[in-house]
Design a protein that fits this description.
alpha+beta; 201 residues; 11 strands; four-stranded antiparallel sheet
């Protein structure tokens, strides 16, 4: 658990308490950790891999909320477990993952006994809420072609391995719309399209 910034700050007793009650797990790619509407009974501390949080709407609409990466904990998972309420999104593994499951009662006890862990949870909520606010602003106010280019540039790769459908999911739009925008960007010499790859010019 050394990947988690809060862990080294815990007291020796709290470290022992957490480690003795945590369950190590390994799960494959495309595995559903919990569904929208589930009440979570465990907290996942992600040690390796990537998990995506998505909301499924009517008519198969999908909204991608955020990703959980190495050394992070999901606020939707946390909120559902803490309040015994339904999760507002579905969590799916993007890659194979490794991590630790913390039972509900252990998580709640740690919240009470450790101010360090409390601070970590509150900072996590703040970071993810900021990310969600940015997502809403981007969807509402930015042109889709601008969002596509910004997403590709953030990957910091000359050639980005991604399908049109995957990019549509990342940017909360359909594959058909993404394909049209990408073709337009290719015609303007911003990118070059390959099979399941996008080259940034």
């Amino acid at each position: 658990m050394v990947e988690f910034e809060f862990f080294e700050k815990l007291s020796v007793e709290d470290k022992d308490f957490l480690l003795s009650n945590a369950k190590y797990i390994e799960l494959p790619e495309n595995y559903t950790l919990f569904y929208q509407g589930d009440i979570c009974k465990d907290i996942l501390l992600l040690d390796e891999g990537k998990v995506k949080l998505v909301i499924y709407g009517d008519l198969n609409d999908i909204v991608s909320l955020y990703d959980i990466k190495k050394g992070e904990q999901c606020i939707i998972n946390t909120s559902s477990t803490l309040s015994n309420s339904e999760a507002i999104a579905t969590a799916q593994t993007v890659t194979a993952i490794k991590g630790w499951l913390i039972p509900e009662n252990i998580f709640k006890q740690l919240m009470i006994r450790s101010s360090t862990y409390q601070e970590y949870i509150f900072s996590l909520f703040s970071l993810k809420f900021n990310a969600l606010t940015t997502l809403i602003e981007d969807i509402k106010f930015k042109r889709l072609d601008t969002r596509v280019l910004e997403y590709l540039e953030k990957r910091d790769e000359k050639i980005v391995q991604i399908t049109h459908e995957e990019l549509g999911l990342e940017l909360n739009t359909s594959r058909v719309v993404i394909s049209r925008v990408l073709k337009d960007l290719e015609n303007k010499n911003f990118i070059k399209l390959h099979r399941k790859k996008i080259e940034i010019l």
